[in-house]
Design brief:
alpha+beta; Uridine Diphospho-n-acetylenolpyruvylglucosamine Reductase, domain 2; Enolase-like, domain 1; 25% strand
Amino acid sequence: MYAFEYARPTSVADAARTLETSPGARLLAGGQTLLPTMKQRPSTVIDLSGVGELKGIHRDGRALGIGAMTTHAAVAASKDVREAIPALAHLAASIGDPAVRNIGTLGGSLANNDPAADYPAGILGLGATVVTNKRTIAADVYFKGLFETALEGGEIVTAVGFPVPKRAGYAKFEQRASRYALVGVFVAETDTGWRVAVTGAGAKGVFRATDIEKALASGSAPGSVRMASAGLISDLHGSAEYRAALIPVMAERALAAAK
């Protein structure tokens, strides 16, 4: 094991200061990707678990705010989340196993942007806003590609703001061993129309299924859409064609579960 520094700040300001003054530092927001992160040999590991201001859930009318260090288990169990956006609570409850859900965090998932993670579909499907210590970023521009986001150097995800939809649902076909999404689809009817986000299938990560959005807007069923396989993942778990066939099926199930 090589040498590295360990920091445990108690405020966002302290964390940002350490991040900016320690070249090669990495943030620890739950630890689900700690081992691959350590292989990159960070100079400093900044543990955010002691930053209380990054935790918590609050609702204000038609908006729901969730702190970046709020665990998946807390989101799944929250009365505010279950009443405002039941699909988001269901999504959180479907992540991994109890150990993962009680350690993994919303902010950690978003910062990592794994192409098979569940939360990106919820954030993009709901048209949420990612809040950092420096700015706010709309979901439509936050996800840039495979493990890539709009976050810049020195930025820390502090919270996510969710508009409460008219109704929403989430369904996924999971990998049995990891419970990651082979294909996961989040469907939301919002004040501005339908939004459909797909995770687990895109070679560049989460994406909006605009053809399914158009079908829903016209009153057609998601199952009527034939998805193209171009740009989709093909691996030992399933071909691109298989994932393309699954997307409308998962969209149908998400719509049926929407409330």
